[in-house]
Write a structure and sequence with these properties.
Elements lengths: L2 H22 L4 H17 L4 H25 L7 H17 L4 H23 L5 H20 L1 H4 L5 E2 L5 E2 L2 E2 L3 H23 L2 H11 L1 H6 L4 H27 L1 E2 L6 H14 L6 H19 L3 H15 L3 H18 L47
Antiparallel strand pairs: 1-4, 2-3
Helix pairs in contact: 1-15, 3-8, 3-9, 3-11, 3-12, 3-13, 4-5, 4-6, 4-11, 5-11, 8-11, 9-11, 12-13
Keywords: Cell membrane, Membrane, Transmembrane, Transmembrane helix
Membrane topology: Multi-pass membrane protein
Subcellular location: Cell membrane
């Protein structure tokens, strides 16, 4: 390679490296990436196409998955009853409207019922931890599903309960799909922001301590049972909020939204998206909903493909899609801070006076002083 080509390549590399450094080293790199994702997602959400419906459903399930991540990712308590609380919220709206209540009173009734059920079931669930907690939450979810299926005088059984009226906010009627999607996006952003604040609060730090070392937390004076109780209630209440949106988006609530497979899908959303991140389950929700509503059109065995993807994600990326994003940002930072080996430059020797003469090569001398021996002194001529 000629010297000119080398300098041209070096200049291009330094320009690319400088651009990567400006973007990757700024503290706003993460928020800017999130803002870009929000802008692109909002464009497709309000495009009025089939993709808009997919993204709307993904936002609803992402809310429930973020609540599950608070309890499972930060607190280490994986719940298999999250879909049950989503169903309680949706049934609360549908049944309240069927009994003559307006949309907004129905929302209040639904959230109140979700909170009451969560407060009661948490008393039983948080008495244990580990695999026992998983089994108890699974039982709670199946009890709620059984009630929705068998209590036909209230829930109409397998036929479901229709949701006839959507609420309105001033002149904004949520009956229109675009208005409902906008409201869903706003609720999603508010819930996500609140959950991120919770994870950075003392309560969120105590949940991290539960997952890391509960006995040490108890030795420090924390009442860990209370922390588990509050975490369970907050997680269930967030799922109830998702259920309210689910009812208005689908206009029908049936027991299929509460069965065990829905709990499994929510767990997959959290694990594939990334545990203990809050924003990771959003990516997992988009992936799972795409499998359910888009890939299922072309593949009859889409559940098998999704299972293979889930297994591969657990093996090769244990920290989920969020971990891939973080490693990508870390790679950009390394590219931005590292560079090529320094190029050879010409060093100018500034010589005072006349031009320095080149040094003559040393000649072999039989009487040369051996290496390491003291150098003999050279006599200096005496002055006049």
């Amino acid at each position: 390679m000629s010297l000119g080509s080398w300098h041209e390549s070096l200049g291009r590399f330094r320009s690319a490296r400088g651009a990567a450094r400006v973007w990757a080293l700024t503290p706003a790199a993460g928020p800017l990436l999130a803002l870009a994702a929000l802008v692109v997602g909002s464009f497709y959400l309000f495009a009025g196409t089939y993709v808009s419906t997919i993204l709307e459903d993904a936002l609803v399930f992402a809310i429930a998955a973020m609540g599950l991540d608070l309890l499972g990712g930060f607190g280490g308590l994986i719940s298999l009853g999250q879909a049950g609380f989503l169903g309680v919220g949706a049934y609360g709206v549908a049944i309240a409207e069927a009994h003559g209540f307006g949309p907004w009173p129905a929302v209040g009734i639904a959230l109140g019922v979700v909170l009451g059920v969560a407060l009661l079931t948490a008393v039983v669930a948080v008495r244990v931890s580990g695999i026992s907690f998983v089994i108890i939450t699974l039982a709670i979810g199946q009890i709620l599903w059984g009630l929705s299926y068998e209590w036909t005088s209230l829930t109409s059984g397998d036929n479901g309960v229709p949701v006839t009226t959507n609420p309105s906010i001033g002149s904004l009627d949520l009956t229109h799909p675009e208005a409902l999607r906008a409201a869903t996006l706003v609720v999603f952003l508010v819930v996500m922001g609140l959950l991120l604040l919770v994870t950075r609060s003392p309560f969120g730090l105590s949940l991290r301590g539960l997952r890391a070392n509960e006995r040490r937390l108890q030795a420090l004076g924390y009442r860990t049972a209370v922390q588990r109780y509050l975490g369970f209630v907050v997680s269930a209440f967030v799922a109830g909020i998702a259920g309210v949106l689910y009812a208005f988006a689908n206009h029908l609530m049936s027991p299929t939204a509460m069965d065990f497979s829905q709990d499994g899908f929510l767990v997959i959303m959290v694990v594939v998206g990334g545990l203990a991140t809050i924003w990771g389950p959003v990516l997992g929700a988009v992936l799972v909903v795409l499998f359910q509503q888009e890939i299922s059109i072309y593949l009859s065995r889409w559940e098998t493909v999704m299972g293979v993807v889930f297994i591969a994600a657990v093996i090769f990326t244990p920290d989920g899609i969020a971990g891939l994003v973080r490693r990508g940002l870390a790679l950009l930072r390394r590219v931005g801070t590292s560079g090529p080996p320094p190029a050879t430059t010409h060093v100018e020797h500034r010589v005072t006076g006349s031009e320095a003469a080149p040094a003559s090569p040393a000649r072999a001398d039989d009487n040369a002083t051996p290496l390491g021996s003291p150098r003999p002194s050279v006599p200096t001529p005496e002055g006049p």
